[in-house]
Design goal:
The complex is a heterodimer of chains A (112) and B (115).
Chain A (H helix, E strand, L loop, with lengths): L4 E3 L2 E5 L4 E6 L6 E7 L6 E6 L5 E4 L2 E5 L5 E6 L8 E8 L7 E3 L3 E6 L1
Parallel strand pairs in A: 2-11
Antiparallel strand pairs in A: 1-3, 3-8, 4-5, 4-9, 6-7, 7-8, 9-10, 9-11
Chain B lengths: L4 E3 L2 E4 L5 E6 L6 E7 L6 E7 L2 E4 L8 E4 L6 E5 L8 E8 L9 E2 L3 E5 L1
Parallel strand pairs in B: 2-11
Antiparallel strand pairs in B: 1-3, 3-8, 4-5, 4-9, 5-6, 7-8, 9-10, 9-11
Classes of the chains: A mainly beta (112), B mainly beta (115).
């Protein structure tokens, strides 16, 4: 069974602080995606990483895929209240359907 | 609208009742997924359709859960004889399926509460 563990589970910080969320697994994934979900809504895709060691930037968000394609991190610089939400990593299992296996989630609250 | 639509948004069922949850994917999307999400947790895979074919139902928790997509567009997730542990948000997602890695577009989910 492929599992994706995220840490921390909860994070409450002040506006302007930096933070990093980790996504770890013992399994190799063919690709990995990060989503953000707000209350009452479905997850929204932020980024897809495919190559081991790949780094992608999306404004103040930096995503990295581990060299062995088993882990990933999301770094947010100068967090803002609008960044508040549930952050989810999701790995593609590489099987026939290539379905996504979601991580356990990190709930981020950015206080103004 | 152009997004994935799910109905109803909220459903309260008494234990033992049957429920049906509907998903309208983005027009033309080949792939359709159902996920179950507990509060504050990541979604868990239930089942996958490619057009009308159910190619993976490995995540369905019991034989009380049944999904269909008879014409390759709208899908229905049915839960028979609901139990309290079925209480969760049920998310539907679709993708074009044109590439090996196609972005998933999620609906806003149906929150099921079994009393």
């Amino acid at each position: 069974t492929q599992l994706l563990e995220q840490s921390p589970q909860f994070l409450s910080i002040q506006e302007g602080e930096n933070l990093t969320v980790y996504c770890n697994s013992s399994s190799v994934f063919s690709s990995l995606q990060w989503y953000r979900q707000e209350p009452g809504e479905g997850p929204v895709l932020l980024v897809t990483v495919v190559t081991g060691g790949e780094v992608k930037k999306l404004k103040r968000l930096t995503f990295q895929f581990g060299d062995a394609r088993k882990d990933s991190s999301l770094h947010i610089t100068a967090a803002q209240p609008g960044d508040t939400g549930l952050y989810l990593c999701a790995g593609a299992d590489g099987g026939a359907t290539n379905k996504l296996i979601f991580g356990t989630g990190t709930l981020l609250a950015v206080q103004p | 609208g152009a997004g994935v639509s799910q109905s109803p948004r909220y459903k309260v069922a008494k234990r033992g009742q049957d429920v049906a949850l509907r998903c309208d994917p983005i027009s033309g999307h080949v792939s359709l997924f159902w996920y179950q999400q507990a509060l504050g947790q990541g979604p868990e895979f239930l089942t996958y359709f490619q057009n009308e074919a159910q190619l993976d139902k490995s995540g369905l928790p019991s034989d009380r859960f049944f999904a269909e997509r008879p014409e390759g567009s709208v899908s229905t997730l049915k839960i028979q004889r609901t139990q309290q542990e079925d209480s969760a948000v049920y998310l539907c997602a679709s993708s074009s399926g044109k590439r090996r890695i196609s972005p998933l577009h999620f609906g806003n989910g149906t929150r099921l509460t079994v009393t």
